[in-house]
C-alpha cells in the first residue's frame, strides 16, 4: 500500500505541553501506511498580514507547500478561553489565503485536543472546524480525539502515558485505515 502522508501541527510550544504529548503519541502510534511528520517551525512563522499580491514570507510559503503535498493534515489544538490559541489561528489564516496552491481546499483534516478539564478542548475543536470549513477543508469530524483531564495522562517528561487516550488514538488510525481501504473515503486529494 502506498504511504499516506500526514502532516501534524500542534498549537502549543509549551514545554511538556499536553497537546504536544498527544501530537507525538499520534505520530508514534500511527501504523503503516501512515507516515506522520510533525511540523515545528513556530518561531519562523510571522503573524498573519493581509497583503494581497505581496509574496509570502519564506516560512509561510514553505508551510503552504508542505500542507499542499500532505494527504491529511492533523491539527492538535489547546483550548484557551473556549477557542484556539492565536498561533494556530495564524497558521490556519496563512493557509487559507486564496492564492495557489490552495493548501486547505478539499484537504482532509483531522482534529485532536487535550485540556485539563473534562471536555478536553472540544469547544476549541468546534471553532477550528468552523474556520477550516470556511477555508474549504474537509474536516473529518467523526475522526477526532479529545483528551480530558490531560494532566492525569501526561507524565513529567511530556509523554502521553494514559492507556485510554493512547487506545483512542490507535483506534482512530485503525478506523481511518478501514475507511481508506474500503474506498468510502478517498484520502489523497
Ligand atoms: C488564558 C487561558 C485560557 C484557558 N482557557 C481554557 C478553556 O477555555 N478551556 C480549557 O479546557 N482550558 C483552558 N485553559 C487551560 C489550558 O487548556 C491548559 O493551560 C493547557 O495545558 C494548554 O495546552 P498545552 O498543555 O498543550 O500547552 C486556559 C489556559 C489559559 C492560560
TrEMBL record:
GO molecular function: FMN binding; oxidoreductase activity
Gene3D superfamilies on file: 3.40.50.360
GO cellular component terms given for this protein: cytosol
Start and end residues of each NADPH-dependent FMN reductase-like domain: 5-151
Protein name per Swiss-Prot or TrEMBL: Chromate reductase
Species classification: Bacteria, Bacillati, Actinomycetota, Actinomycetes, Streptosporangiales
Amino acid at each position: 500500500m502506498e504511504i499516506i502522508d500526514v502532516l501534524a501541527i500542534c498549537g502549543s510550544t509549551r514545554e511538556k505541553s499536553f497537546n504536544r504529548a498527544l501530537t507525538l503519541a499520534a505520530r508514534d502510534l500511527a501504523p503503516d501506511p501512515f507516515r506522520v511528520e510533525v511540523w515545528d517551525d513556530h518561531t519562523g512563522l510571522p503573524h498573519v498580514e493581509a497583503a494581497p499580491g505581496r509574496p509570502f514570507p519564506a516560512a509561510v510559503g514553505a508551510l503552504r507547500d508542505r500542507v499542499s503535498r500532505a494527504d491529511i493534515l492533523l491539527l492538535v489544538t489547546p483550548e484557551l478561553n473556549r477557542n484556539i490559541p492565536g498561533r494556530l489561528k495564524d497558521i490556519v489564516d496563512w493557509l487559507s489565503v486564496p492564492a495557489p496552491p490552495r493548501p486547505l481546499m478539499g484537504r482532509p483534516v483531522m482534529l485532536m485536543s487535550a485540556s485539563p478539564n473534562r471536555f478536553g478542548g472540544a469547544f476549541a475543536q468546534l471553532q477550528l472546524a468552523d474556520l477550516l470549513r470556511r477555508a474549504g477543508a474537509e474536516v473529518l469530524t467523526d475522526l477526532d480525539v479529545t483528551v480530558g483531564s490531560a494532566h492525569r495522562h501526561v507524565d513529567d517528561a511530556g509523554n502521553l502515558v494514559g492507556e485510554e487516550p493512547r487506545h483512542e488514538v490507535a483506534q482512530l488510525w485503525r478506523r481511518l485505515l478501514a475507511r481508506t481501504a474500503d474506498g468510502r473515503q478517498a484520502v489523497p486529494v
